Amino acid sequence: MEINGEIVNDIVRYDQLGLSAEVMRAIDKKGYVQATPVQAGAIPYFMEWKDVIAKAPTGTGKTFAFGIPMVEHIDPAVDEVQALVLAPTRELAIQIQEELRDLCAFKEGVRTVCLYGGQPIDKQITQLKKRPQIVVATPGRLMDHMKRRTVRVDKVLTVVLDEADRMLDMGFVRDVTRILDQIKSRKNLGMFSATISREVMDISWVYQRDPVEITVRADEQNKPDIAQYRLDVDRNEKADTVARLLELGGYDHAIAFCNTKNMTDRLVGLLRMRGITCEAIHGDIQQRVREKTLNKFRQGLMRVLVATDVAARGLDIDDVDVVFNYDVPDENEYYIHRVGRTGRAKRHGVAYTLVATITEGIRLDDIRKNTGNDIKRVCFGADGQLVPVEEKK
User: Fold this and answer.
1) Mean pLDDT across the chain, nearest whole number?
2) Which terminus of the chain has fewer Cβ atoms in its 10 Å neighbourhood, N or C?
3) Which of 169, 216, 222 is nearest to 194 (CA)?
């Protein structure tokens, strides 16, 4: 880990961070002892109300890195919004709220609310009337509430932009800046991201003051254990290949990613024809149905979740056995976040990318070159097992 350019490799336990008894009880209940690098780097500075910009790989504990000091700073006696977290997707917003609730389990009087599109706004207004101190929101829905004057952010002390690169890339720049401009009382701003884009730096330059820069690289300690493979197949054989790989590996919990909503629906139909339980989530599916589908997947009631990249970030699912890139992703970052759905919580993960055209092969070669990921070419051998393919030199 680097803090302001200096390498720091100290191992830090939560009980060394000067946390309250209530927050320590919540952490102990989760079974955590040692802070991850991004937590060890960010928490002390956040506790001191410093601005922080942190770059860390997916799955390295960024939510607790800002969530722990955020909960510590909340005054339960004050019935006003004191902390705000902005997230790019509904799924991530819901996950963040759940983790913050866990941290507040023993801190009486601290209330959280999650605001996102796709849910009836009246229901959220009712929750806001309970005077939460922490708001987790997607930018668009928060702006709706601010315009309706159903939420006030003028007393907010801490603001966090989670998955900042993704949020700004999705076109939320104007909403984010309008929100920040209305928070005159802000004492610190945290920006957490897997990559630091130009848009992220622009926000940092305008809204942060001498931010502490934390960089956690994907070294052997925190790099997910994910075996990555490429299979060259005929386009009409992709669904059969997914079914074959599921049986070969004995995988019970899989996510298959497609580039379009139409393809996710089509793949669900193809897999169901092969006797595989699966459902799709994408942007055209109602939020209520998406949440129901995700809960079924978490509970093991279906084998395959078929998704567009709307689900590539922020899913609170730690036990995905395998990821299938049914379509080669259009962006390098999409590949990173897709395969990052497996190999979480120190488990071994597997990712297969199915290549059916020359264009897809060129795209995957470009991903491998630019991300540095070790993607091995394999094929089915005569005995039906996977065998390596000799790379042409």
Assistant:
1) 88
2) C
3) 216
Q: Which two tokens stand for residue 220?
A: 């052997």
pLDDT at res. 220? 45
Q: Is 151 helix (H, G, I), strand (E, B) or coil?
A: coil
DSSP 236: G
Q: Which residue, chain included where needed, has tokens 């966090």?
A: 160
Domains 2-215 and 225-388 share a fold: yes
Q: Where are the domains of the chain?
A: 2-215, 225-388
Q: Interhelix angle for 62-73 vs 90-103, to 10°?
A: 50
DSSP string, 290-333: HHHHHHHHHTTS-SEEEE-GGGSS------B-EEEESS--SSHH
What proportions of the chain, in percent to the nearest 5, are helix, strand and coil? 40, 20, 40
How many H-runs (helices) and E-runs (strands) does the chain carry?
Answer: 14, 17
Is the confidence at residue 186, as pLDDT, over 50?
yes
Helix axes 173-181, 198-207, angle to 10 degrees: 10
What is the spatial distance between Cα 104 and Cα 83, in angstroms, rounded to a whole number? 13
Provide the β-strand partners of residue 24.
none
Residue 373 confidence (pLDDT) above 50: yes
Q: For residues 335 and 373, is the Cβ–Cβ distance under 8 A? A: yes
338-353 residue pLDDT tens: 888 887 665 788 999 9
Instruction: Say how many C-beta atoms besides its own lie within 10 A of residue 18's C-beta.
Output: 10
Q: What is the C-alpha radius of gyration for the chain, rounded to an integer number of angstroms?
A: 22
7: exposed, middle or buried (C-beta count within 10 Å: 0-12, 13-18, 19+)?
Answer: exposed
Q: Which residues neighbour 123 within 8 Å (Cβ) at sequence distance 6 or greater? A: none
CATH code of domain 2-215 = 3.40.50.300
- Global pTM reads 0.66
Average pLDDT over residues 137-157: 94
Cα 314 to chain centroid, rounded: 3
Give phi and psi for 33, each to the nearest 5: -125, -50
